[in-house]
Amino acid sequence: MRQVQALHVPAPAACTNCGPAGLTMPASGAIEVHDPYWPVPFGSKLNAPGAPGIQRSREKVTMFRYSLACLLALWAAVPAFASSWADGLFDELGRDFGAVPRGPVLTHPFRLVNNTGAPVHIGGVRVSCGVCTSVRPLQYDLAPGQETAIVVQMDTTRFLGPKVVTVFVTFDQPRFDEVRLWVQANSRDDVTVMPDNLAMGRVKRSTSPTASTTISFFGDANWQITGVASDSNYVQPLCKLVRRDGVEVAYQLSARLRPDTPVGKWYTDLWLTTNNPATPRVRVPLNVEVESGLSVSPGSVVLGPVKPGKETQQKVIVRGVQPFRITRIQGTDRQMTVRDSTPAAKDVHVLTITFRGNQPGDMSRTFRVSTDLVGENDVEFTARAQVVP
What we know:
Blueprint: E1 4-6, E2 23-24, E3 32-33, H1 54-77, E4 81-83, E5 94-101, E6 105-113, E7 120-127, E8 133-137, E9 141-142, E10 147-155, E11 161-173, E12 177-188, E13 191-194, E14 198-204, E15 210-218, E16 225-230, E17 235-245, E18 248-257, E19 264-274, E20 281-291, E21 294-297, E22 300-306, E23 311-324, E24 326-330, E25 336-340, E26 346-356, E27 361-371, E28 378-387
């Protein structure tokens, strides 16, 4: 979300029931101008023509009105809002980790995309608290359309209780600007999470892996988890009470990944709502790497060197999360052919690549293997060959 900074021009000092200094707002709503050199307001009988001091008073009032008009004109000319082009690069400008057990290092990447149409350079980064927080950009130079992240880490062993840290990101191209990010956390020594995150590791797409952890609360036998939610709809959390013993209360938090979760490395947070006003929410991070349900190994094959008229072969293995048939192989020609070991449905297929040398030189091919699997039913691999005299 883009943050818009308001640019305000301060008004002159005012008193109660008054407008700017020198202006009094009567009940009628009209503005009366008071001349400090002539204590009687205009409109009184003393301001009749020819009265002593009237000319001087009128000149000063005219000058005051002219100055006031200039001030109001300048005030109106100032833009009401001034936005930062650098703020618009970021998806978000802040991260609240909530209540966390004291001990783990909290990590959050602030994603940014170069949407300026010009090269962007990050001149530097710094934090308001270098003892508990560190920051690093994944890269400093961004071409138009390129993206990166500012990775911020908070060491919860370095503080106890609430902590807010400001992260300064300075840009010097295409022009100078500075963005202020923030992170905050509430480091608690009366809450533990073992293990401290839900790490599912590498999983195949179309599967539903699970992970679990135990959350313990100390010092209050009345602790309760009243709700659990996930930042991602692909994660289905479940929490249940496992122990209430004296001053310790323990819950088991489990999470199941939906089988339609996209391929890639994913990070998300699960949030536990409690009945303790000092710790209303507890964060538990989750990470998983979802691999394609169809994989090929190796992804790149080297054939040769071979002499003209000679042949060489290599094997490639295609694996699936369930039995499948190979329906088509694209990219073959007279010099390079690919043959499947069986037409039957299996979860592992062995492909044989045959290369026949012709003219001396180097060549490369990309093969696309199509299957009858639903969803991700294609996989690609490359082959490079060399023919020597």
